[in-house]
Amino acid sequence: MSGRVDLVLRRVRPFGGAEVDVAISGGLICAIGERLAVSGPEVDGGGHMLLPGLHDHHIHLLATAAARQSLSLKGVSDGAAVAARLRGTAAKLLPGGWLRVIDYDERAAGLPDAAMLDGWVADRPVRMLDRTGALWVLNSAALALIDDAGGWPEGAERDAAGALTGRFWRCDDWLRTRLPKGAGPDLGALSRDMTRLGVTGVTDTGAGNGPGEAALFEAALADRVLLQRLLLMGREDMPEGTGYRRGPLKILVDERDPPDPDALAARMAAAHVSGRAVAVHCATATELALALAGFEAAGTVSGDRIEHGNVVPQGAVVELRRLGLTVSVQPGFVVSRGDRWLAQVDPGDQGDLLPLARLAAAGVPMIGGSDGPYGPIDPWAGMRAAVSRRTAAGVVLGGGEALSPEAALGLWLAEAGAPFARREVVVGAAADLILIDGDMADLLADFDADRVVMTLIDGRICWPCR
Description:
It is a single chain. Helix content is 30%, strand content 26%. By secondary structure, the protein is α/β, with parallel strands linked by helices. It folds into three domains: 1-53 and 423-466, Roll (Urease, subunit C, domain 1); 55-61 and 185-422, Alpha-Beta Barrel (TIM Barrel), CATH 3.20.20.140; 70-178, Roll (Diaminopimelate Epimerase, Chain A, domain 1), CATH 3.10.310.70. Strands 2, 3, 4, 6, 7, 24, 25 and 26 form an eight-stranded mixed beta sheet that branches. This is Amidohydrolase family protein.
């Protein structure tokens, strides 16, 4: 090949192989070979390894961006310490500024409500998210500022007298649209940090994503605030996009309020008829059983998937394989939640916790994600956890369920929507690429994020920033 191209990567080694040049044009790899006779801007790869960029197959972008601007209570398990942290942070805010708190652990002072928050901070609006991400709690000052036009959602808890308790169960999307106008989460800072980690694509798995969220992401992509390619899950009314790809219908199954089985199956079947796959949130064995029953009744199509698979009994593994379902796993949970699981889950059931090797051996396709902000967004940390199975305290959680380093890397190299297809560095492939310092053996030995030397998305250098 000869002629002018958009970019030439000289002296790079795809997957650690022989040193070649890679030419890029129109966002695609257009030529690979030794000493390509092409002209255009050049980058000397210095013999670094070239890999496809990583894809985070399960993340909540808006919540992750917002969490970075919040007070985290992770590791705080005493009520007095919680109060001190809230009061100290609130004192630094501008008058009237909202205090956003995340990672509250109910072991500190029990399940909070508005009255409890008022006792900690009453002179400014406070909204606090529990460690599971399922419960928002607002103090009285915050409740007074909420736009309740159209009424309160089903997840708004009330006491015996019918008064709001301040607890909102799984109301993220409703709450986001009712908060007073103000500075939103900084998607740009999050996106740039993900490029530093080598993440070139993401799947936002918000169950409440609809036209409003789609428009927000469309604008962020058009303005290059959000740099990664985006597969967007959401509700039935989420439109097709130009900047993003519309993904599966996301269904949140919650064992606290289980869906009617027939209604669940009907919703799945309707999605299939409309041409969409279905992704179901399943963090517990009960939720997984409900989802499997729904898929059994509705049938399955390519792209149907289970989100999390934190608890997968052996019988469910067989059903997952038979139904042809993909499981989106978050190995980082071994670190962030493993010690809690070991303390709370019966020893006889601990073998069912994130059984990655069991799923792999059964031929159940898996893809890797972070579940940010509820898990670490660093994909390399997730790979390390998949291999070591070590909790934050250093305890091995189900060592027999560890993956090989090659399989762990493969979780993040899977094609979005096609888990059996690993993205490759070949002519015609999207120029979403990362340069890695070291050989493949070095990378598989430590999965160190600092090995990412450069990240390209759509043929453009996004990291380091120029």
